[in-house]
Amino acid sequence: MNMTADPRYLAFTLINAGQKPTLPLDRAIEDAAQKLELLSQKDKGLCHAIVFGVFRHRGRIDQLICHCSKLAFDRIDSKVKTILRIGVFQIVFLDRVPDFAAINTSIELAKPICGKKASGFINAVLRNISRSHKDIALPCSHKNIAEHLTAAFSIPSWLGKRWVARYGKEKTLTLAGILMDLPPLTLRVNPHKINRNALIADFERAGINAQTTRFSPLGLQIQTSGIAIPDLPGFNDGLFQIQDEAAQLAVQLLGPKPDENILDACAGLGTKTCHMALEMENKGNITANDTGENKAERLDREAGRLDIDIIRTTHVDMARAGFNDFSSYFDRVLVDAPCTGLGVLARNPDSRWKRSSKDIMRMAALQKKILNGSANLVAPGGVLVYAVCSCEPEETTQVIQRFLDKRKDFSPDFSGFEKHLPFFCEFGSKTFNKTTFPDHLNMDGFFMARMRRNKKNLK
Ligand SMILES: C[S@@+](CC[C@H](N)C(=O)[O-])C[C@H]1O[C@@H](n2cnc3c(N)ncnc32)[C@H](O)[C@@H]1O
Question: Would you call 389 a catalytic residue per the annotation?
């Protein structure tokens, strides 16, 4: 068997890599780009379906393995477990693969990786699951909601209990159900090159359906599935950037204007940085800061694709930042802080199995430091927007509350939503912060808050 050209073997290596707490699955897939290129289009599709499917359905898959294995689940070797999960996913969720093929390919995969004895075990468990999975019921939601959420919706028990305590059973079930769907592919048009209707028409000519987003004035949601992003018409010409609607709204809330001096404190790969630059008509200065390795290079490439040249990159640790690190104050500062990503589990199914309640506390502590450090760089009268792709109170409202309690040089900006997001605003009362949830408004779970530095008070 030629392992390198085998989609299931590649899926096996990607699942193992994506399970590591420090490596996002997207990154593991990017790192394997050359190996994926060796596969046919059909095999590449199979590999992707298995990798994402195993993470997305792992709750039910593991329930079935527990039920049908003579060996206690915790005692199963981790590589054997991964091969079992790949086999079960194909048997239960992938109609295009017959059960016998799912079982035989799993055994072939196991032989060189785990040995003969383990292959026999895998064979027995998979045959058992193939015969009986339709008769194995989900745990009852009335008797044990946490176990039900795990098996039915791949929500780990600690998170299920947390959400039920906060939202109640019904909302948690709805939210968990939505997170099992593939989220919409949303993009933001580059208004200096094309408008939304013209791009919709270009897409239509290529057989792709798209419709305008409800709140963001620049957003389009793609209705047609299975298209690789670089294959969308206009990608190479910089006509648009992929960005969820909630993330688009965060930049609108910041309100960047031409000729301003702006800091993107945690710029990452620069999706929001480029959005700001386009709002500024590519006039003024943006400092895109991030401590992450290799991100600046990719940000520069993306800015080049969009013909943007007002961004300079820096690598300051914002948890310790002060005026001397940048030697200027900024008119506006965006803090799109590192977070648990619990608002975007539908996009990143690997995150379901990597996070814990400790991560929420760890992230909250870091977010408070980064927000405080970044706030030092806001000019008197300037704007500070804090955003995270999480809906957990410790990372959202509590960070802001603590910040405003300590930093008397800042105040909530109650006019920001009304001024910059009037369509979005009509759904809520007058406020300076908002949380979006994936189970309504068809966008990511996201939090954003807008504050202002008082005119006189510099810390
Ligand atoms: C949510 S991501 C930013 C996403 C980005 N704004 C975008 O729209 O693509 C958070 C970023 O914070 C960076 N980061 C983490 N700790 C940091 C620190 N102490 N100072 C500055 N950046 C940090 C991470 O490398 C990561 O890229």
Answer: yes
